[in-house]
């Protein structure tokens, strides 16, 4: 699971803009945002770079 949706909202960036900067289709980015498909590790790092956040900010901790 990831927190891409939350970080996009915090940064004021649309899925369309992220998809363009990432070089992925809007549909693929939408799947990432909806947690229906998880990005590869390199793609996750690209997303973190585009959003100017630490990659850990995009991940959901499973620690309880």
UniProtKB/TrEMBL annotation:
SUPFAM superfamilies: lambda repressor-like DNA-binding domains (SSF47413)
InterPro entries cross-referenced by the UniProt entry: Cro/C1-type_HTH, Lambda_DNA-bd_dom_sf
An MF annotation (GO) of this entry: DNA binding
Domain HTH cro/C1-type: 4-58
CDD domains reported in the protein's UniProt record: HTH_XRE
Pfam families the UniProt entry points to: HTH_3
Origin superkingdom: Bacteria
Protein name: XRE family transcriptional regulator
Species annotation: Prevotella heparinolytica
């Amino acid at each position: 699971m990831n927190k891409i949706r939350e970080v996009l909202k915090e940064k004021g960036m649309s899925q369309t803009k992220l998809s363009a900067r990432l070089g992925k289709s809007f549909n693929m980015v939408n799947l990432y945002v909806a947690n229906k498909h998880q990005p590869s590790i390199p793609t996750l790092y690209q997303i973190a770079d585009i959003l100017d956040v630490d990659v850990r900010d995009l991940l959901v901790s499973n620690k309880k």
